[in-house]
Amino acid sequence: MSQPAPMTRGGAPPRGSQPPLLTRSISIVLATVFLACLSMGIVYPVLPKLALTLEGGDTARAARSLTVFAVIYAMGQFAVGPLLGSLSDRFGRRPVLLLSNLGLALDYLLMTLAPTMVWLIVGRAISGVVGRASFLAYAYIADCLPADKRIQGFGWIGAAASVGAVVGPLLGGALGEVHERLPFAAAAMLSFINWASAIVLLRESLPAKSAKLTLSWKHMNPLAAIWSFMKDYKELRGLMVAGFLLELCLAGVTVYLVLYTSNRYGFSAAQNGLLFAVLGFGDAIAQIRGTQLAAQWLGLKFTAIIGVGLRAAALLIFAFADNATILWCGVPLNLLGAVGGPALIATLSGQVTSEEQGRFTGVRSAIAALAAMMGPPLMFGFFTTVSHQSGGASLGAPLIATAGLSLIAIVLMSLTPEFQLKPARGDMPA
Q1: In this structure, which long-range contacts are made by residues 416-423, counting pairs with CB atoms below 8 Å and at least 24 apart in sequence?
Q2: Which residue in 122, 101, 98, 82 sits closest to 34, CA to CA?
């Protein structure tokens, strides 16, 4: 068995003696990402039935409660992302991740026992707050790996999230057949196990704490945090806006695709499940195997541009496909395009000092949560005003619009010069 890497005073392995990518600590961080996404999806299959039970069989009230349930989760994520990132820069990644894992476990236990819909919604808001700390996996990877190696780690994070997002609903549906509360209990148990494992195995990744950091309004207000970051890193504004547009596309397409395939091609629940399983597991494989290779051949900038371009092409195929067979022909392009996201994140991370990786991650978290709140209503609003008025032939219009947003993101990335990756603090010459 290999010996653990020596640790610095701050608890992180020293630069130049980095352990292999999948060390026990990084495995715990990836498990945190996987469980955060799994726990988010594991409750979806039983939510309609549980909401109807808690609302006394009132379908209208159950529908309103489910809307609040969905929105408040994203609001919680948006509210605390920058604060958690700054706290991790000040106190380290480990304590924030440990509190997140414990908070998720206790929160899902609360939702398991929730006697009313109000308590269930309160629990969901808490899970949005504590679960967002899983975004700090990006900062953890940035601490452990030099800038030119981070894309592989970011690919692993994306893969863990993709697999968790697919496995969650599948597991939730199976457990929900036994009891409608069982998926919540399972999510609590898995989070407790991950928390206990992290206490033993998770090491601090930050070489030194930013003791001079004092929390201010810009750390606690997500909009102020985003504005402040944009002022401090003016050269990254175009890439940050591109990232927001891509998150907006992802959030909208994720919720719209089921409606689209069901209405246009008559997909059953099983067929939609298969489509999303292929997309999720395919994303994971592409990000694990493809990100590093693509970056070595093309560089980070062109990997990001080509990845986004492939996904835009896939969306156009989906939109214009006359039948399900043609729709499936667009899936490989979508999967190959999975390398674009990690490449964009690695490019941005490479321009941020190691002392502010947590701040950067927190701002990205807030931007992604904002997109998650805006994407679905924008997509369904477009669907209502365009597709229903023109009949089934225009059902693809929202997907065409999404491809257009992706092309705008490509233009923004193309206008940004190729950056030289900055060495991390531990890599700086003495």
Answers
A1: 416/235, 416/238, 416/239, 416/301, 418/299, 418/301, 419/235, 419/301, 419/347, 419/350, 419/351, 421/147, 421/148, 421/350, 421/351, 422/147, 422/350, 422/351, 422/352, 422/353, 423/146, 423/147
A2: 101
Average pLDDT, the chain: 81
Model-level pTM?
0.79
Report helix, strand or coil for 88: helix
Asked if pLDDT for residue 142 goes beyond 50, the answer is yes
Q: At what angle do helices 237-265 and 222-232 cross, to 10 degrees?
A: 130
What angle do helix axes 340-349 and 150-176 make, rounded to 10 degrees? 130
122 by DSSP, 3-state: which? helix
Q: What are the tokens at 305?
A: 């541009």
pLDDT given at position 219 = 67
How do residues 368-420 score in pLDDT, each as one tens digit? 889 988 887 887 777 777 655 655 457 888 899 999 999 999 999 998 876 55
Structure tokens at 282: 């395919």
Q: Which residues of 275-291 are buried (b: 16+ CB within 10 A; e: fewer)?
A: bbebbbbbbbebbbebb
**CB-based contact 293:339 (threshold 8 Å):** no
Per-residue pLDDT tens digits for 165-179: 888 888 888 888 888
